Amino acid sequence: MNVSPYALIDRCDQVFVTGRTPAEVPPPPSDGNARGWVTAMRAVPGGQTQLELAVQGTSRQAVVLRALHVRVVGRAAPLAWSAYLMADGCGSGVTPSTFDIDLDRDNPRARPVAGVQGDVRIPATDFPYKTSTTDPQVLDVVAHTTGHDVQWYLELEWSSGDRHGTLRIDDRGRPFRTTAIKDRPQYLYRGDTDVWETAPDYARR
Q1: pTM above 0.85, yes or no
Q2: 3-class secondary structure for 88-148?
C-alpha cells in the first residue's frame, strides 16, 4: 500500500492553511516536494484533502478490496489561519473518478463519484475491487469540510482466500487533518512578481 496524501491530484483545487504570513511562505511546491513544503510550513490541507491510494497484492493470488470506512477521531472549530491556493486559472482537464467524503456529516462515508476526461465521462465504480502483484489498484479520495477542523483516517477491508483483515490508512501513523477555510484570508502566488497576493474574488475557494 502506498499512500500519497499530498499528491496534488487536482492542483487547481488544492489549498493549504498555515499560521505563517505571506512573506514567510515560499512558492507553491512541485508535486514531488509537496510533503516537504507542508512539513516546513506546518500546514494543513484547507477545505479538502486529496489522497491517492495505490494498492497491490504480494502474490499472484487475488486480493479483494471489500470496503473503505471513514473514522473521525476529532472535530473542532476551523483553524484561524490564512489559506494559500496552489494554483489558479486551470482549464478543464482530466478529473479522475474518486471517492468523495463529506467530513461534516455525523457518520461520513466514502461515496463513489464519476469523473471526466475531455468529453468522456468516467463512470463511478464502487467496491469490491481486485488486486494482485500484476494488477495494482489506484483509488483517488477527496475528503472535504466547510465548517470544521477534522482529524480522521481510513480503514480498508480486504480478503484473500481464507484470509481477511482491515488495513488502517493514515498519514505515517497520525490521522489526516482537514480544516475549513470559509472567511479565512486567502492568498494566490504570482509567478511574475514572486509574491503572495490577496486572492481575487473569482479565485477564492
Answers
A1: yes
A2: CCCCCCEECCEEEEECCCCCCCCEEECEEECCEEECCCCCCEEEECCECEEEEEEEECCCC
